[in-house]
Amino acid sequence: MIIVLQKSRWKYFLENYCIRMNAILLQGFRIQLLRPSEYLQRRFNARQNKLKVEKQLGLRPSSAEFCQLQNQEMKEEQLKLCNNALPQKTEMKEQEYLKQLHEIRQQYQSE
Predict the structure, then answer these.
(1) I need a labelling partner for 98 at 20 to 30 A (CA). Which of 4, 34, 51, 84 fits?
(2) Residue ranges covered by each domain of the chain
(3) Environment class of residue 98 by beta-carbon count within 10 Å: exposed (0-12), middle (13-18) or buried (19+)?
(4) How far apart are CA 97 and CA 90, in angstroms?
(5) How confident is the model over 74-98, as a mean pLDDT?
(6) Which tens digits make up the pLDDT trace of 33-74?
(7) How far apart are CA 96 and CA 94, in angstroms?
(8) DSSP codes joined into one string, 16-78
(9) 8 burial type by CB count under 10 A (0-12 exposed, 13-18 middle, 19+ buried)
(10) Do 60 and 54 contact (CB within 8 A), yes or no?
(11) How far apart are CA 99 and CA 63, in angstroms?
(12) Backbone conformation region of residue 35, classed left if phi is above 0, alpha if psi is from -120 to 50, else beta
C-alpha cells in the first residue's frame, strides 16, 4: 500500500511539474501562440527599425545607393555599347546605300 501511494504521489508530482514547466514555457511564446500575425508584424517592424538605425549610424550602406550605382553602371555600359555599335550601323547602312545606288546606275546604263 505504501509503495502504491508513493507511486501515485510521484505521478502526481511529475504531472504537476510538467504542467508548471509547460506554463512557464508557454508564457515566453504566448505572443506567438495566441496572435501569430501580431507577432510577425512586430518582428517585421523591429527589423525595419534596426535597418533604419544602422543606416543612420552608417553601419550599413543604403540599399538605394547600391541600386543607383548599379543602374548608373548599367547605363554607362549600354551607352558604350551603343556608341560602339552606332558607327558600325551607319557604315553598314552607307554600304547598302552605295550598293543599291550602284545597282540602279547599272540598270539605267543597261537601258
Answers:
(1) 84
(2) 1-34
(3) exposed
(4) 10
(5) 77
(6) 556 677 778 888 998 898 888 888 877 766 656 667 777 788
(7) 5
(8) HHHHHHHHHHHHHTHHHHH-HHHHHHHHHHHHHHHHHHHHHHTSS--HHHHHHHHHHHHHHHH
(9) exposed
(10) yes
(11) 53
(12) beta
Do 31 and 39 meet the contact criterion of CB atoms below 8 Å apart?
yes
Question: How is residue 34 written as a grid cell?
Answer: 495566441
Enclosing H/E stretch for 81: helix 63-110
What pLDDT is recorded for position 26? 58
Tell me the one-letter amino acid at 22.
N
Q: Give the Cα separation of 74 and 109 in Å (integer).
A: 52
Tens of pLDDT, residue by residue over 17-28, are: 767 766 666 565
